[in-house]
Amino acid sequence: MALHRLLGIEIGVPDPASLDAFYREIGFTGGERSWGAADQPGQISIGEAGYRQLRQMRVACESEQDISTIAKNLDGIGVASTQRDGILRVIDMDRITDDDAWTIREDWPMDDSWSLWGEKVQPEVFFRPHDIDEVIEGWNKAHG
After folding, report:
1. How far is CA 48 from CA 7, 29, 45, 65, in A?
2. By C-alpha distance, which of 38, 55, 95 is closest to 46?
3. To 5 degrees, how large is the angle CA 22–CA 27–CA 28?
4. Would you call 25 helix, strand, or coil by DSSP?
5. Which of 55, 61, 79, 119 has fewest C-beta within 10 Å?
């Protein structure tokens, strides 16, 4: 797979002016809801939204086969997507639009739960990915 460049992202935030001020403070190039590095000043586009969100991400790749591979990998982890005319769209299944759903419940015993939002019993892959031994070995090589 040959993803080789981030072409741009569009993000939504409740207060775009505050994010503009932050990007200006850390030295990004651009202004007024359009930011980036010196060689790509419009790489980050900011829009107003009710909550922080990634609305769009554009990456460059070598071929349509790369896009098909990404779609297959997303499907393998349970993320729905559609592919057409060189564009891969991911369906946002995690967006919560009901404000009451954001309220943390306290009407169940927390000692019997591993996540406020998840299943009672965590999946093994959450704590023991299939390649964890290789990850640990690589980390040990890099950090002595």
Report:
1. 21, 20, 10, 34
2. 55
3. 80
4. helix
5. 119
